[in-house]
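Worked example 2:
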Amino acid sequence: MEGLFTHHAQEDARGSVSGLSLLAKSGDIEIMRQMVTAGATLWLSPGSEEYTFEFFFVQRGKLEIAPEGDDVETLGPGDCFYVHGLKQNVMLRCVEAAELLYVSNCPVFDSEAYWQQELQGLLRRIDEKDHYTQRHSRAVMEYALQLYKELKDHCPGLKLEDFVMGALFHDVGKCNVPGDILRKKARLTDEEYKLIQQHPLDSARLLEPIYGPRIAELAYSHHERMDGRGYPRGLKGKEIPFEARILAVADAFDAMTSDRGYNRVKTFEEAAVELQSLPEAYDPLVTATLVRLVREGRIGPQAAAKTAE
């Protein structure tokens, strides 16, 4: 197509999915609008091609960007940043709901649209069964991410975005568990408990075709315990991937600090200290890190409040 083209703010963009809109495209150049909700954690990843160039202009809102080893820098309306030759992931935190103008010289919209559609579809499947499970999944992701950033050297070869996906979707297999069992307040029968114990395998089966075997393994192993008394495979100690040990602690921590209608809600420090007292079940390095982060205020009620919004 040639000539002059206009796009009015009230019109739909050429395409839109989960906050990302394609405004214009010419060859490999794409101009997009990215809407980001407050409290969201994002990451910039190295491009698949050496010549990849991505430019971001903050139209409204506030972001915190923290290149590894550097101080956190805050960006607001009128600020911009760009990526070229990136060698490692860079974390972004959305402090206030933001709108970004996003320009790339490598087509990303179609692949991003596919990824986000799959993501939203899985989240809907969780929420249709149990609203608690969806909130729990987001909270576990936030806690697990904070632990991962402290312990990433123990997870060689695992990309940040892969860990986040595994943490967010670790319970997606619960969509195959009857809703009345998921929502049951009374003690489960042995038969009902066996159905619950199936969900890590179902999560792995759903995740592997979309995200690959390592993310699937993360979800598959998050209920294994250090002494081999977990499920579904009874893995023991170092047989359990370290990233799954992180996820197991984050999963239990959120369950202990959340009101599920039938439990005594523990404070963040109570839960962290209790988990640290259970080395037969949870990795001592992970639980010690959790206690430290809670006492430093880096994991606390404010994070739980954000996931409930």
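The first strand starts at residue 15 and ends at 17. The chain has eleven helices and eight strands.
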